[in-house]
Amino acid sequence: MHVDKGSAISLPTAPTPYNSLEPTGRAMQTASHDWMIPAAESGCLVLADISGYTQYLRDTELEHAQDVLADLTETVVGGLRPALRISKLEGDATFAYALESEVEASTLLDTIDETYFAFRSRLRDIRQATTCDCNACRLIPNLNLKFVAHNGRFVRSVVAGTEELTGSDVIVAHRLLKNSVKECLGYLGYALFTDSCVTALGLDPLILGMREHRESYDDVGEVGSYVEDLEEAWSRVQERRRVFVLPTEAQFEFAAEFQAPVNVVWDFSTSPRKRLLWQTDFTHIDQTNPSGRRGPGTTNHCVHGRGAITEEILDWHPFHYYTHRIVLPMVGPWIQTFEFRPLGEEATELRIRLQRLRGKQRLLWPLMRRSLSKGIRENADRLRQILEEQEVQPVRLQSD
User: Fold this and answer.
1) For the stretch 117-148, what's the b/e string if a residue is b when 16 or more beta carbons lie within 10 angstroms of its beta carbon?
2) Each residue of 100-143: pLDDT tens digit?
3) For 11, phi and psi rounded to 5 degrees?
4) pLDDT tier, 30 (very low <50, low <70, confident <90, very high otherwise)
5) Which terminal residue of the chain has fewer beta carbons within 10 Å of its beta carbon, N or C?
6) Is it true that the peptide bond before 272 is cis, omega within 30 degrees of 0?
């Protein structure tokens, strides 16, 4: 079997995320030349590792196996970015990171979950798309994906044209790829978050349904962590009812383009703190997350003047769409879908669709349409301006 991999995976030697921070290195001069000593930075280190990789290569035809593994690796890389910076590929693992304050807790959790779901979907699609009975195709279901997320300090530099992250916390993250999660918890596909990561992101692992786990190594000592069962999360997603307003079902549709990656537009559309920057008709937004993270069941109490609007998320597919039920004073509930479409890596189209109204709401619609359209358009203009003002030049690392 041959899997069409499309274009080769290309990784930048100097990452260029939309919300890059200002350069942090310290310039040093010598008598003979100028050079830069990179400063230590803080952030979240993420490793995505295809488990069962070694055994898969051992038991299959190498030519076929490489096609499958290259396809799956591209799926993983595509899932992790642009929310995370891709440092490099390490055989069966993808090493990524985010600098401090570049990614919120909910976004990191969603990125890991969505990458795992994309991986499992791709496994299923490859297996179903072939009738080949070679070992490479037959053993595809034996592959899985695990993640390690660790918060710490590290130094970035470019060596021989390739970015390198160094530091003791980088070593800790890599050590954790060899762990006893499978033996102790029975998980095959999972995400392991170290105590330092949980603390830095302000996660509540118990509400999130994570299980406590500890590892001990001769060189880095004992490492505490919490583990999310991604196979269980995948099963829940498969069973979840889809709530999505199609164009043919819409009473009203609004579209706008923004010069920012889809994960940035998503964050500004779903984070209460960031929404207040451009939805200036709200004075504050109180968010309640029964599951410990944004998703189905999350409610937003949006206050504007003496009035308030209540939003409840019904469906949540990070970086693709979300649908909520909104309750307006004197109008009642209606359902809206917000769909995000990437336009390349640096631009996004946002489409907002209001489900077709009925009864009293339909009679009121002619009176509401103009003010609703005006409000959405003005909010979109403010968001566009904020995104343009926040854009900065990417960090350039000095080569050794």
Assistant:
1) bbbbebbeebeeebeeeeebbebbeebbbbbb
2) 988 889 999 999 999 999 999 988 887 776 666 777 677 777 89
3) -110, 130
4) very low
5) C
6) no
